[in-house]
Design a protein that fits this description.
By secondary structure, this protein is an all-alpha fold. The chain has ten helices and no strands. α2 packs across α4, α6 runs antiparallel to α7 and α9 crosses α10. It is globular and about 55 Å long.
Amino acid sequence: MMQSLIPAWVWPLLAAPFAGSFLGVLITRLPLGQPVVLSRSACPQCGTRLGAAELVPVVSFLALRGRCRHCGHRIDWFHPAVELAAVAVAAWAGWAETDPAWLWIACGLGWTLLALGWIDLDSFLLPDVLTLPLLLAGLVVTVMLQPEALADHCLAAALGYLSFAGIALAYRRLRGREGLGGGDARLIAAAGAWCGLEALPWIVFASAALGLLAVLGLALTGRAVTSRTRIPFGTCIALAFWVVWLY
């Protein structure tokens, strides 16, 4: 009876800070090739391993006033920022989705895209350990919830990958350097697996528009923008993917 009185969106919202804490581990360790599960968290300054009381999302940061309990070194705001971003993803999903099954799926997708977008923003990488399972998960979700759309979603995944891989190959041949990473092609393939063929052009268009806005933002801040200026296009794909899938 009590469970029926609690809205479905409450549980993902409560889980979000802990999901965000794990996402922080992924974001910091995957680009460096460090172990994610087997290695315990420690202070980057003094190396002291952190106890459970020091790892409570957001609360520990506030209780410690943003400093390591052992050496007093300032804790990077990155950690509570990721945790709060995960809460924002859950809140957005809860506002857009009312069905409990779809809500948890939306949160899982949003949290994964948050990690991918953040990693690409920081290091211009989209790790296969996230993009490839995301692609497979899109097809599994389609089989579970929309089995009649599986062929469409498989075709969208293949078309998305081949189109981006083809653009990357053509650019490399013409300009003699990388212009579009392989991770971008795998992420757009995952978008096709989740969203289907009809939605794929909208994701590509929105990603390109966000990329142009990023370039404009760099120009407005006074940075020189040339043909060699790197843009975290995977971050643009991740945001477009998330919004199109939700709506």
